[in-house]
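Cross-check.
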Amino acid sequence: MRHPLLYPLRNLYFYFIAWACIILAHAIVLTYFFHFNLSVSVTDACISNSIFALMALSFWYTVRFISIDTGRALFVILNHLIALILFLTLWHYSSFFLLNHLEHDTTYLSFLSGSVPLRLLIGTFLYSIIILAYYLYKYHYTFKQKIIREAEWDILVKESELALLKSQLQPHFIFNCLNSIHALLISDPERAQQMLLNLSSFLRLSMIKDQTKLVPLHEELENSALYSDIEKIRFGDRLIIHTVIEERTLSILVPHQILQPIIENAIKHGLYNYTGVVTILIEACMKEEQLHLSISNNYDPEEKKQDGNGIGLKHVRRRLLLLYGRKNLVHITDENGIFKIELIIPD
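Predicted model, tokenized:
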């Protein structure tokens, strides 16, 4: 930890300006209250306070190496008492020596000798103030660094968790797609080939994007359309996807690949174990200066819902929490055979 008065160096200027004010006050007191002439008063004030100011710069190293974090209060007090005694002794004799050689007024020299207890008392007070100021700076600096480290750690943890979510989600998605391709290899090789090409394009886009990054909504819709095309090849006319998108929402930034797991969830719970047509509706609009994305699908309420651990929706919730720090960004409704997931993307 650097000396607070030397780094940056401009702090030293303010330090000496403060001591210049003390010197001025000292000279005024000697002149108007003790009736010494101006030259004597200025000499006393300059020498006494200049030596003190220079020596006080070294107090920082005492504070730096005598930390009260140890919990040994007696040890800290004794060390500072020893430092104070050494400092007062050195300061008193050095300033006393110089003043005795520079001033020959017997009245002043008598005053100088008689004022030693008062000078030592004032020196003790100034020492305490400076030490306290150094300690306050030290703990402010330490606290600030702790906040910075915690913020950096939080960012690192979030990035690591987002990367983990991505590593968990992609194998889950690939597994489902490969199952679909496998089902078409014998019955319709051409559709299987097209599905494989679409999967390749989708994966290439997902690999070059970072899960911590945001992309415009229009780009996210294009990426999710690649996945939708994969599933349309598998389910044919049984899967219909409509989009209702407000034009002003297209440039809003959203988390990359946030729609794919929700569309996958809609297909899974809408089409599996159901022979009818499922319509997935993707909507985007602005409400109260926030982007609202919703994905809804119909399903047969009489059919048993597809079992699953809900890994896609869990990942969506967790990603939004990590990115925006809010837990209320995912809303789910299930009414009259319509399952709807609404995402709120803060501005």
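The chain is about 65% helix and 15% strand. Residues 10-114 form one domain. Passed to J.P. for a second look.
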